[in-house]
Amino acid sequence: MSFEDLGFSKVDTDRERRTGYPEVIYGEGKSAEQIYQIMQLLIDKHERVMVTRLSKDKAEQLTALFPEAVYHSVPRILLYGRPLQQYQSEIIVLCAGTSDLFVAEEAALTAEWMGCPVKRIYDVGVAGIDRLLAHREEITKASVLIVVAGMEGALPSVVGGLVRRPVIAVPTSVGYGAHMEGLTPLLSMLTSCASGMSVVNIDNGFGAAYQAALILQLASEGEQK
Amino acid sequence: MSFEDLGFSKVDTDRERRTGYPEVIYGEGKSAEQIYQIMQLLIDKHERVMVTRLSKDKAEQLTALFPEAVYHSVPRILLYGRPLQQYQSEIIVLCAGTSDLFVAEEAALTAEWMGCPVKRIYDVGVAGIDRLLAHREEITKASVLIVVAGMEGALPSVVGGLVRRPVIAVPTSVGYGAHMEGLTPLLSMLTSCASGMSVVNIDNGFGAAYQAALILQLASEGEQK
Amino acid sequence: MSFEDLGFSKVDTDRERRTGYPEVIYGEGKSAEQIYQIMQLLIDKHERVMVTRLSKDKAEQLTALFPEAVYHSVPRILLYGRPLQQYQSEIIVLCAGTSDLFVAEEAALTAEWMGCPVKRIYDVGVAGIDRLLAHREEITKASVLIVVAGMEGALPSVVGGLVRRPVIAVPTSVGYGAHMEGLTPLLSMLTSCASGMSVVNIDNGFGAAYQAALILQLASEGEQK
Amino acid sequence: MSFEDLGFSKVDTDRERRTGYPEVIYGEGKSAEQIYQIMQLLIDKHERVMVTRLSKDKAEQLTALFPEAVYHSVPRILLYGRPLQQYQSEIIVLCAGTSDLFVAEEAALTAEWMGCPVKRIYDVGVAGIDRLLAHREEITKASVLIVVAGMEGALPSVVGGLVRRPVIAVPTSVGYGAHMEGLTPLLSMLTSCASGMSVVNIDNGFGAAYQAALILQLASEGEQK
Amino acid sequence: MSFEDLGFSKVDTDRERRTGYPEVIYGEGKSAEQIYQIMQLLIDKHERVMVTRLSKDKAEQLTALFPEAVYHSVPRILLYGRPLQQYQSEIIVLCAGTSDLFVAEEAALTAEWMGCPVKRIYDVGVAGIDRLLAHREEITKASVLIVVAGMEGALPSVVGGLVRRPVIAVPTSVGYGAHMEGLTPLLSMLTSCASGMSVVNIDNGFGAAYQAALILQLASEGEQK
Amino acid sequence: MSFEDLGFSKVDTDRERRTGYPEVIYGEGKSAEQIYQIMQLLIDKHERVMVTRLSKDKAEQLTALFPEAVYHSVPRILLYGRPLQQYQSEIIVLCAGTSDLFVAEEAALTAEWMGCPVKRIYDVGVAGIDRLLAHREEITKASVLIVVAGMEGALPSVVGGLVRRPVIAVPTSVGYGAHMEGLTPLLSMLTSCASGMSVVNIDNGFGAAYQAALILQLASEGEQK
Amino acid sequence: MSFEDLGFSKVDTDRERRTGYPEVIYGEGKSAEQIYQIMQLLIDKHERVMVTRLSKDKAEQLTALFPEAVYHSVPRILLYGRPLQQYQSEIIVLCAGTSDLFVAEEAALTAEWMGCPVKRIYDVGVAGIDRLLAHREEITKASVLIVVAGMEGALPSVVGGLVRRPVIAVPTSVGYGAHMEGLTPLLSMLTSCASGMSVVNIDNGFGAAYQAALILQLASEGEQK
Amino acid sequence: MSFEDLGFSKVDTDRERRTGYPEVIYGEGKSAEQIYQIMQLLIDKHERVMVTRLSKDKAEQLTALFPEAVYHSVPRILLYGRPLQQYQSEIIVLCAGTSDLFVAEEAALTAEWMGCPVKRIYDVGVAGIDRLLAHREEITKASVLIVVAGMEGALPSVVGGLVRRPVIAVPTSVGYGAHMEGLTPLLSMLTSCASGMSVVNIDNGFGAAYQAALILQLASEGEQK
């Protein structure tokens, strides 16, 4: 591993060669100036970069500097350039409610930027199970499923029982009271009775998509002997 | 309200007149001798009594003294006599997994002892949603539904979305790790996205059945003007 | 179940036929524009709609578009139209303190909008038990009781012991310190020593009223054979 | 302050002179041999000693060595000798349920051993409020009230509203599930809406009685100028 | 108990006769208008009133209406009139750090308003134990001690070991990180190794002072036979 | 989905056809008799079955009835028969300490039974980073990595940074004090700074292996178009 | 110990003589006016003072009054004067990510102000272990290491395994969701498998540096006989 | 770093050369047979070994095999051989109560085995502050202080304020109720108002002593330039 040292940050410029993807910038807690410097370095090296958790006002400063960059305000993601590879298999992103969209879109955009075809199936929470079952055929065709849910976080368990592919569950901070800012669906997903399911941090649509893309990458390379 | 004072306990002997049901004895933390005295008092008064959370060895001492009493070892309930009223409407008790049976049976036996017809639908956890859907028609006919689930506690949300009757959710202590002895499904049920649902304490099959019976009682009396 | 797909939301237009009530819109986390579209759809179909947890500024935008809609600022509810049915039996909503009013009113308005006669008994917290006992006769006449309390959440236990009807307890976020934003009265109500009581999420006056209305609906239909 | 150093323990032999009471031995986590040595020292000095949280088998070893000592098995207290002073005012110990007796008796015996007249009012939990109200007159005559409750811990709030004397609340570990081994009634009592009430640790009947006795001592000495 | 019903509030106008003190108004969560009405009622009846947790802007509105009322901005208390009785014995209020002043002053002002002489000993946290020990003689002369501390909440344990009078401990929300907004000192005080100490809610200086005043009242009346 | 109803359990006999794997029996909370019946049914149908979380004494009863079954006492797994498919790609199971072996072996045996080649790299906790780095070359060749760790749960983050394949992290209950029976490494893994990592429940080696096997299955089938 | 009493604060003016360092002012919760008075007192006495957790606007007021004082905005520290002693040995401050800088700088500046040479190694989180290993030689030369990390808090464990000197771990509030504002890395660091490591409160860079400086002071004095 | 691979364990045989101390065996969760093999390896290499958290029955098996080894039953430590170096400076181990002895002795024995002179000052909890102050002179002479306390964990704060040397605080699991098995004193110590103090895990006497020994080692080597 080699990296570029900016003082406040050591940027991993070797990452794309090693993993297929350049480093991604986590925007929270960094100043627009710091992000600008890291972006410049990564664009020079890779011609592409993604910034997550970027506030609107920092995004405005950065798009002024990088006019080609596109900011998506719901998932708060800034994209520049496009990835090298493009996979064939499909990732399906499901979400339970309209309020979970910001996380679902973080997942969907990340996966697309990493070269994955994405199908979105939104607002299919378990309290109206027919809305999900209307997509039953469809979801069994996905290679990987990302299931986003706030409130009680029950959707991934139901989906996990319908498919034979890996399910990555994402709890969201959408809810109130006993929901404890997402801790309840997080713990609930971890104790799911469905097999073949794993979980990422609250609102971490990016992390789920990243793992899903690695799985597609592996599938695209076929068996490793 | 009038009561009989045993020193260690004040027994509410007027309860059946007021509420339709005699006082129920919570067996945990009481000695066999204490339970014996309270039972004797209640049998003298009402000819019926129920003891919950009764350990096997205390049950053996008490059935020796009250040969007519019947002990159910899975839900750890001792029953003596039968209630006055018998309702027509049906309560359905559902449970998610085989390990939740001890709570589901506490609910079912309590409801029956309070005069409610009970239908049991067990092992219909959401990770195999077709097992539940096979009973779809059936569950829409219940007047009240008691839904028992451990692990992530997702079953009540799905059931709640399928029916237009009150759903009482009971989380169980069945699970491990992030399940935190039932706290996770408890909180999860409280943040359910289904309307018309309320929750009782972990493993509290008795409490759910008690409320369900009060609802049937109300329905049997019809509108109160 | 059939639904209308707005892309960001799948609206259940068949709900009134199945359950007696049209879908209710949860306002938090949805934009005024999104709510507008769902309202339009539901009004076209049912001529009635309720929006809960609606902020004042969104309410102003929406009442400008739907002049017939009425906004209640304490419980933050927007109402349009009125329900089909009207029950005879009465729901009583009690609350412990003046600060719990916003939740009690969410419950009361929801119940009324669902066709239930509602009596309000407010500021009867247990630390001045005579205020509650002054209503003793009255509360035994309710068909269902919704008991709202913040702080230590003790009121439902006392009420539960005075009546033979279902009690639905609602903890509120009113309190400080060890109150932990409502978690303490929530847990406290769940461990209540009163029988026949169940609990909904913190501040969830809507959920309590919804279940109460389902119980009245059942009672109005009488025994189900 | 002067003390006797036993190596494993520094015994405060000066305490009675300073505070009116000799040091009390907390039995848990000490061996019978260690307790024996501390008892011997305190008896030599004061002719009286109390040991709390003492298991039955250690008690048997110690009563064999000190035949005058009396062991109370429910509150697990060993008493030897009697205190110097005897107050006139009365402490009332109330408890909510039969299962809370072990804590209530720890409080009552401690208070008596410290010279306080004690009246016991047991099994008056709030879910049957008339049992408490039957003692209304009586409890307003106490100088201090110790209120012991498990489950949701609501009793002290109600009592606190009925009297104008200090109320010391003691939560107990009696309950299950959301009760979290006493944490729920502990937090609940701390957020009580009643004024003039304070709280001690879960099951700490001793601590409550100790403070109550200090209050009686102060009252017996009258105003301090 | 008799009360005046304002609709949103039932004001206990009989309280001074029963307990020696008129009702106190908890300002949080009430509008200036609501507080105004309750104040008016209580002033008409008792010529005195205290409002706690009152924000500065509400205070400005109310002092405009009641020019005799005095607002204390650090503890956020509004006082009107003065109590009937005046005790002789002294309460000492100690606090650990400068940042805990707002709670210590809530306690001190409340106690004074209830007729208790108060001595303040501030900024005597245990990490500089000599600051406390410099007041050793003084604190043994108090009749009751209120000990306020944030951070680790250790001060009450040390004070409790120095005196033979009741100690009421008040944890504060002053601290960060593992302090968890006061939960840590709260729990810490509850597990104190000092005897004769009890605890009130986080930042509840009012509650501690209220109980302390009741103790002084009892002491002033002498033994109750 | 079709299933066989044993009354206490609904066995999914169609699962192998749908997912490639027969249903797995979770042994905890089921009696030996119940497990026997489910095993018999699954063996009749599939000639293979796995039972997890099986206590030693139940295992002895079952191996007496199924002499071909093999019991592994460290991970408490009973295996009967072997799976249909055999993949080429490799799963690596790493664990941090010797005490984590029981979870690591649950993962390894599960993966093997599902047809995956497994390499074990044990006792490579991060406090001796050279032990892990000695396997650096090796771990980059795995197709999926299962990383098991108790204590602070740091190993998956380090491994996640070394590879470009999916990492599934498994926290264990090995630790004490602030470790809170595994909750600490669970939460810690969820907040990992490594991308491409997801998490399963505490001690859930089975769940991690199940998802890993699904990923290998997908890879063996190649891209899905 | 002697101190100066400002009423709201007792300033320890004797501290430098006793410990080598004057008292440090914790800025949070104190007014600019209060800080000014304490600063004045300490400058008169010691010619040096440090204020931590000082907001920008209070800093502006104070630098206007003390033009020689320097405010560092990232760690929010105000420095005036310089310490008496200067040690030879080196402290290394490491941090995991760019967002942890504010805590790392609080530690670094504090240590420097206390006379310690400080080397900074930033952005060396464990998910890119080579960035840390590039400094391997260097870190073994430190006398004490302060390791700052948010997210999962794994860095101190790895560093602890590489050196034979004391490691002081500082968790930060940088993270989201399961990170629980720093509680997760705090608990995680406490259960570290590395020996020779201890932990301070979340974001407490000051506390870590203070202890590190005491260690250097001890080392500079050599063995104490 | 080089290590010996026993399959279930990778033993670091190079550790003494690197750090001055051979690897220590954590006995919990390892079988007597596994410990035996690791001990044999370490004795062959270093002629010394320490095993911590060793149960009595495993200790009996191991002392039969290594007759020179000595088992200390209170701290559950097995010692074999003695360390190379011997420092001059002194560590003082203080503990708050008799019940904390098992942790204090784990710390004291570990420090002695690592070559540190240790002075023990036991049963000096803050509720009898004079017991601690009687040792005031003495404790200012220590080079490092290890302060062990259960209950509210206040002792380290007081000690920290009396000395100018590093204080390492060890919370213990001794307490009940709100003490939460040590979590309360752990959090309490972390929020201490004393400077120069750090904290280790609950009951981790070993960890505190290990860091203390590293500090003495550094002091014995003098300044590092």
Automatic annotation (TrEMBL), chains A, B, C, D, E, F, G, H:
SUPFAM superfamilies: N5-CAIR mutase (phosphoribosylaminoimidazole carboxylase, PurE)
GO molecular function: hydrolase activity
Biological processes, Gene Ontology terms: 'de novo' IMP biosynthetic process
InterPro entries: P2CMN_synthase_LarB (IPR039476), PurE_dom (IPR000031)
Segments forming domain PurE: 89-221
NCBIfam families hit by this protein: LarB
Protein name: 1-(5-phosphoribosyl)-5-amino-4-imidazole-carboxylate carboxylase
Originating organism: Halobacillus litoralis
Upper classification of the organism: Bacteria, Bacillati, Bacillota, Bacilli, Bacillales
